[in-house]
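Q: What residues go here?
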């Protein structure tokens, strides 16, 4: 049993090293007060990562206030999953690209940044990868300048997900 757990841990680490994970930092890209809720995003979504079509993910977005979303999600794909993540999110737009600043509720603030495009009835999502962003920033302005300079570089984003709205 211990050997299986070791193998699982090694495979998980290799997966993150080879494919990258969402970049995390203590800074958001903007102040949430400048964000607005997009009602088209509210509701329950179910989808999958394009490269792993058998792995289902769902999330539900609620308006937390006039500037922020509250998100619940599950990577199990089970709609009645009791083990759900809880996130706070708000939007930053850079050169027409919509980015969601996402941080876990109840943890020290660490932000990840997800690009999202609503096309027809599909929501396409990718994240800013730690494979591309290999540096630490001293403040929010340095991070924002870096993202602005690279926003149109396709290597900035990784791991494409596609979601369809359930309600």
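A:
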């Amino acid at each position: 049993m211990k050997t299986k757990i070791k193998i699982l841990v090694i495979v998980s680490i290799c997966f993150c090293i080879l494919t990258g994970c969402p970049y995390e930092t203590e800074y958001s890209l903007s102040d949430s007060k400048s964000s607005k809720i997009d009602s088209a995003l509210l509701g329950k979504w179910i989808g999958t990562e394009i490269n792993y079509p058998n792995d289902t993910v769902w999330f539900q977005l609620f308006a937390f206030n006039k500037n922020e979303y509250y998100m619940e999600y599950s990577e199990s794909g089970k709609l009645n999953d009791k083990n759900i993540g809880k996130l706070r999110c708000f939007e930053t737009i850079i050169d027409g690209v919509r980015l969601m600043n996402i941080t876990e509720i109840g943890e020290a603030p660490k932000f990840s940044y997800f690009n999202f495009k609503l096309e027809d009835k599909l929501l396409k999502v990718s994240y800013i990868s730690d494979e591309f962003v290999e540096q630490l920033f001293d403040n929010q302005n340095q991070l924002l300048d870096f993202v602005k300079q690279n926003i149109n570089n396709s290597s900035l984003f990784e791991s494409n997900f596609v979601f369809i709205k359930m309600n």
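A: Context that may help when evaluating the design: Confidence is low (pLDDT under 50) at residues 1-19. DSSP finds two helices and eight strands in the chain.
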